[in-house]
Amino acid sequence: MELIAARKKFFAAKRAEEQRNKPPTKAEQRKKMCTYMKHMAGYKDKDFKGKSFYAIKQMFDKAYKQVNDFVPMDTEKKVESSGKKAVSKKRAGDTVTIRSLATKYPIVDWKTHILAEDKMFYQIIRADASTKYYKIFHAMLNDFDRQDVLDLYRLLKERFETTSPEGYDRLL
Fold this sequence. Notes:
Elements: H1 2-21, H2 26-41, H3 53-68, E1 87-91, E2 94-98, E3 107-114, E4 120-126, E5 131-134, H4 137-143, H5 146-159
Antiparallel strand pairs: 1-2, 3-4, 4-5
Helix pairs in contact: 2-3
């Protein structure tokens, strides 16, 4: 009896192992690909309706490559496809300037504008001549990264190297 019970367990384990090692069917693969694309690439169920297995496989390959090739903007690695310089394109008589998103211009100047005793705003000027205004100093610091803070600190030290900022209670 023990021999028969042991053989039953052995063959049950072997069948279970064969079942686990069996390659998935197309329906199972399709279900897994659809689930992945729903969670990772933002697809909906209606995007898969009426599509063949091969069409879904192509969509999956594209989404999988896009998710795996993603590079966060704050990394130091430069993406070659974004380009290193500004490019101009002509389209229907209009000129559109495309700039790389990876480019961050340093702060070259700042100004404090006082409207009234209790109302003021800060103007930050970058190297590409873009300007941004801030009403609240805290909002400016939330928008800055470490390099921006260091640039602003360097400018403050240069401006007040010989003079003292006394008398300014709300100096940038």
